[in-house]
Amino acid sequence: MDQLEFAYPWAFILLPLPVLVYWFVPAYRSREDAIKVPFFTEILRALNETPKVAAGLLSPKHWQRGMLILSWLLIVTALAKPSILGEVQTREAFGRDVLMLVDLSGSMDEADFTTADGSTLTRLNAAKNVLKTFIAKRSGDRFGLILFGDAAFIQTPFTADQQVWLSLLEEAQTGMAGQSTHLGDAIGLGIKVFEQNPQPSEQQVMIVLTDGNDTGSFVEPVDAAKIAAARGIKIYTIAMGDPTHVGEQPMDMEVVQRVSQLTQARAFIAIDQAELDKAYQLIDKLEPQQYSSASFRPKITLHYYLIAIVLALHLLIFSWMTLRQMFSRAEVANE
């Protein structure tokens, strides 16, 4: 009972009100016409009755008095609006919204990424492996995924469900969005995703994995980066593989660097699995995990339960008295 609280404890001063009414407000009296007969005494003697003062005054029974007292106690307690503390609940606040932009152009299928054991992976599979490790370390962030090639499309909006995000990433295959690289359009779509986020966070990060230059976007990557900088979005770019012999043309690292610098972020070059791991480890340090939660105990009000008890008791008694009266009349009629 140490958790019981009253919003209006002053309501309990109303408890003695019925006693004051009983003491200071007289009972209702009414005058009625009567016939005076000189032989009233003989009639009483014949009926074996004795005259009583205020014979017409109704006196409540003990259980009726108890019901009135109980009802008044419940009503006054309800007016005080009692409440108890519920179970502890935790409200989680996510730290960052991280949007991944993954290039699915044809060159991402090149198997030139060497792992620690000497085996080779395609650029896309290497990116998937690193992303799995990166995501697993950041339980407080929400992640979105954009895949791009000839066009960019949203694979998944921002979500805190890592398993769903990773399963959708696993479905990505080279060529799904075309063979070329429209980097500027992908960044533009990413900005739109951030703007339409129903629960935006203060920290907005975009990580771009690509292995080629922009080839025909409606918006140039540098121009898209300027818009992102104005929106407070950081863009980390990771140039994958050696584009000097694979892809449409050598990657323009000046553009890649410029995109990140405009948004106060960094650009990386990853020519193998180890370099790609280092790039994500550094991003993880530059954008550390932010996660907070607040615990609280909600108040559960009880006043409507008390009023419901009063109503239920009175309905029950009224129904019982009505049925009792009906049975009594039926017995008299049968006699």
From TrEMBL:
<dbReference type="InterPro" id="IPR036465">
    <property type="entry name" value="vWFA_dom_sf"/>
</dbReference>
<feature type="transmembrane region" description="Helical">
    <location>
        <begin position="302"/>
        <end position="323"/>
    </location>
</feature>
<keyword id="KW-0472">Membrane</keyword>
<dbReference type="Pfam" id="PF13519">
    <property type="entry name" value="VWA_2"/>
</dbReference>
<feature type="transmembrane region" description="Helical">
    <location>
        <begin position="6"/>
        <end position="25"/>
    </location>
</feature>
<protein>
    <submittedName>
        <fullName>VWA domain-containing protein</fullName>
    </submittedName>
</protein>
<keyword id="KW-1133">Transmembrane helix</keyword>
<dbReference type="InterPro" id="IPR002035">
    <property type="entry name" value="VWF_A"/>
</dbReference>
<feature type="domain" description="VWFA">
    <location>
        <begin position="97"/>
        <end position="286"/>
    </location>
</feature>
<dbReference type="InterPro" id="IPR050768">
    <property type="entry name" value="UPF0353/GerABKA_families"/>
</dbReference>
<keyword id="KW-0812">Transmembrane</keyword>
